[in-house]
Amino acid sequence: MATQVSTDNVEKTIYDGLVELGTERDDLSREATLESLDVDSLDLVELAQIVEDEYGVELKGDDVKDVKTVGEVIDLVVSKA
Amino acid sequence: MPDSTRPEGCALVTGSSRGIGAATALMLAADGWPVRVNYRADEAGAKGVVAQIEAAGGTATLWQGDIAVADDITRIVEPGDDGPVLVLVNNAGVRMDNLSPQLEDEQWQTVIDVNLTATFRATRAVLPKMMRARFGRVINVASVAGIRANPGQANYSASKAGVIGFTRTVAAEVARRGVTVNAVAPGLIETAFTEDVMEGEMAKAIPARRVGTPEEVAACIRFLASEQASYVTGTTLTVDGGLSA
Prior knowledge:
Strand content of chain A: under 5%
CATH topology of chain B: Rossmann fold
CATH superfamily of chain B: NAD(P)-binding Rossmann-like Domain
CATH class of chain A: Mainly Alpha
CATH topology of chain A: Non-ribosomal Peptide Synthetase Peptidyl Carrier Protein, Chain A
Low-confidence stretches of chain A: none
Oligomer: heterodimer
Distance between the termini of chain A: 14 Å
Shape of chain B: globular
Radius of gyration of chain A: 11 Å
Mean pLDDT of chain A: 92
Number of helices of chain A: 4
CATH architecture of chain B: 3-Layer(aba) Sandwich
CATH superfamily of chain A: ACP-like
Order of helices and strands of chain A: HHHH
Distance between the termini of chain B: 34 Å
Radius of gyration of chain B: 17 Å
Helix content of chain A: 40-55%
Structural class of chain A: mainly alpha
CATH class of chain B: Alpha Beta
Number of helices of chain B: 7
Number of strands of chain B: 7
Mean pLDDT of chain B: 94
Helix content of chain B: 40-55%
CATH architecture of chain A: Orthogonal Bundle
Order of helices and strands of chain B: EHEHEHEHEHEHHE
């Protein structure tokens, strides 16, 4: 059963996912850029899989290619739900 | 012997109703993987492989599907009761030989679709789960024809050379997630796939002076699928009795 999509739920999922991928939790904020967190394209692929597993929302490469900040990732997931 | 530290998942061998695919399915099952035995048309052959695996104490399930059809691939690789696909052997392939001046568009396209595009699609579908598991093995069955010339097989040769290039690049993309991607390049192997070329020029050129067996190729795939091969990625292992040496 997919988790209900809400901004709070998605934020927690994305934050937990980024920590799992090696980001320090203290560095996380909606404004933090993916570049500053050393989140690369392969990390985004994996983050997309985490989101799909959790919410059933599929993120394609084109969806995430212009995303710059953590907040934009969260908003993108919520908008696609 | 199953490895208790290995993540839960299964092995999918495309085109495993006979030949190299069948031999590979049997060996992976012996290593403890639940195996998805895929076939397009040879249901009896595939059922026989499943029965052999079960008789040996292994687990196998039957998966009909044409890997040239994108929706069939999607269905076959979907995680099921046997978990996600953590070992993918892209084995299914076709030959439609003709000298280049006579090669029809359809002969070109079908061979590219089955041998190369299907390999890409199946690999694309399984990689995210493999990355999440921090374990994955993709083994692509290329061919010595992807490495050296074999007149009459321009389409086949192009598809298999494509598989080798694809293997290298994907391997580099996902290596840091514990996922390895390798190819084997069989030479002349005694299967129904090659029975019409056994007496040809190629057979005479084999330094080992004999054709190979499906089991000799499957043994290499088995190694590449194992935990022992964890630092082997992006390579193509020729299994050809020295043909391409």
